[in-house]
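Subject: Sanity check before I submit

Could someone independently write out the structure tokens for this chain? I want to compare against mine line by line before I put it in a report. The sequence has 106 residues.
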Amino acid sequence: MKHLHTLFLASLALGVAHAETTPSVTGAWKIAIGANAVCQVTLAEDGSATVSAGCQELTRVAKWEVVAQKLELETASGETVGVLYPKGDTYAGTRFSDGRKLVLSR
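---
Independent answer below. Compare away.
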């Protein structure tokens, strides 16, 4: 039993260390879609996402989550809209519907 307790404490410490190195993604961002459209998106702590009015390119985005170091943008029903990977202070990836590049920056 003591071994399990030690193992639990070690894994907890690793989780805390990992959380400290993962940048916070909550707050206001600019998102570029392809080479043209730039919209404002806000990622809330509760996992919801709000896209600025008039951003026809990402109207379906309603939620976000970080899974295995990648940021996933999702519809309200949980369908993945795009996956972005950390690149310094930004996130970059593609939109599934048409393969257009997505770049999230502050």
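---
OP: Matches mine. For the report I'm noting this point. The beta strands are 27-33, 37-43, 49-51, 63-67, 70-74, 80-87, 90-95, 101-105.
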